[in-house]
Amino acid sequence: MAAEDEEAVLPPQKRFYRQRAHSNPLADHTLRYLAVPAAPPRPQDMDWASLFPTFFPPDAPPGTPPARVEFADVGCGYGGLLVALAERFPQTLALGLELRGKVAAFTRARIRALRAAQPGRFGNVACVRGNAMKHLPHFFRRAQLSKLFFLFPDPHFKRTKHKWRIISPAMLAEYGYVLRPGGLVYTVTDVPELHEWMLQHFGEHPLFEPVPPAQLAADPLVPLLPSVTEEGQKAQRAGRPPCTAVFRRRPDPSSGTP
């Protein structure tokens, strides 16, 4: 039994979890979002305790407000950013969403191994297989998140596939829904054309504004993001410079009449 337990928490090997880099986010007919057949209809129906058990103790006093996810890594890949967030924000829950099944399985196994090897750590991060382009409000309530990350998203170079891009006017409305006013969206890419695309769409949306470079200098995450993921490290080795931008969620427009 001891040998079986030891084997169960060994770090996963990527060679057993490799999957093609490109996925069609509009054709996820067999997608499973957790270890259940369907996505929950509402965020309050999510079994958050199974993802973050240390933050949901069974002996919590009645009336204790439940912990809530504040950071979301959309397209979290092999979990590099999640691991970094766990170390830098140990009391903040962060959820990674990954469309590719094998890659999401690797990241879950990686987090399990880290938790087993270092008890008391990494309990604040988790990964689910999910499609942010279809079901983001199934996971998060309105104004729940304080940070959203899009690191090296698929550029979908062909014009006919631009509708698959994770940044679009329709998707920005959903990001504005789940992000609280003052919350931040971090984007990094090594594709200049995609960088310009994201700058344009965020700049044209009424719910977002770019964060000035002078303010970014004080953000400890900004220098970390270009190299924390596998895709970022590949770009670095290939000599492709990263393009980073950060956008702030504006306050909701006033609904009253002047």
Quick description:
With 258 residues, the chain is α/β, with parallel strands linked by helices.
State the main characteristics.
31% helix, alpha/beta, 258 residues, single chain
Protein architecture, described:
This protein has a 7-stranded mixed β-sheet, sandwiched between helices. With 258 residues, the chain is an alpha/beta fold. Helix content is 31%, strand content 17%.
Tell me, what's the shape?
A: globular
How much strand? 15-25%
What is the residue-mean pLDDT, rounded to a whole number? 87
Total E-strand runs: 7
Q: Ends: how far apart?
A: 71 Å
Question: How many helices in DSSP terms?
Answer: 9
Per-chain topology:
Elements: H1 2-8, H2 48-51, E1 69-74, H3 80-88, E2 93-98, H4 101-117, E3 125-129, H5 132-139, E4 145-151, H6 169-178, E5 179-189, H7 192-204, E6 208-210, H8 213-216, H9 230-237, E7 243-249
